[in-house]
Amino acid sequence: MLLTPHWVFDDYAAVTPDFLRAHGITLLLTDLDYTLAPKSVREPDDGVRAWLASLKAAGITVAVLSNNRSPARVERFCAGLEIDFVGHAQKPSRKGYRRALEKFKTPPEHTAMLGDKLLTDMLGAKRSGVLALMVEPKGGAHTAWQKVLHTLQEPFKRGCAHDERTARR
Ligand SMILES: [Mg+2]
Q1: Residue 2 forms part of a structural domain
Q2: DSSP assignment letter at 122
């Protein structure tokens, strides 16, 4: 089922270097908005910085794969983090994923995609043959649309064989 993620977690921090290593992952692609921070947060907090440092120390390459058309948001967030980004990725198209895999010379079986949206992050990941890791939206669902989206996504998360969330809604 193309819309079911491989794993579901509460938060990006649950995706540890040990977890990734155990799954043979050397390249972690990650969404930005609502995955690493709510959209309103312009700069990474200490938690994101510590998590990225732990991945780097483990030899795992991290790159932001974002659908933002303008690079300004992603550039500002990534500044000083020493991580790369692939912008205007057009998820769920395979194009952006392919660009990232080529850029980092990593085959799909050693790549994972982390994100909060089924129809972009997870669908693109599964179409591209990379491990699809889903998180709850960072900061929670606030707007009416976010709440609808959250509700619509929930059955697919529950259908996931590896739902690691501590509190299921
Ligand atoms: Mg997102």
Answers
A1: no
A2: I
User: Which residues, 6+ apart, have CB-to-CB distance to 14 below 8 Å?
Assistant: 135, 164
Give the tens place of pLDDT for each residue, 105-153. Answer: 999 999 999 999 999 999 999 999 999 999 999 999 889 999 999 999 9
CA 116 to chain centre: 7
CA of 35 to the centre of ligand 1 (A): 5
For residue 16, what is the domain's CATH number?
Answer: 3.40.50.1000
- Cα distances (angstroms) measured from residue 63 to each of 3, 27, 112: 23, 8, 11
- Dist. CA 117 → ligand 1 center (Å): 6
What number of H helices and E strands is found in the chain? 6, 6
Report how far ligand 1's centroid is from the alpha carbon of 104 (Å).
22
pTM above 0.90, yes or no: yes
How many domains, in total, are found in the chain? 1
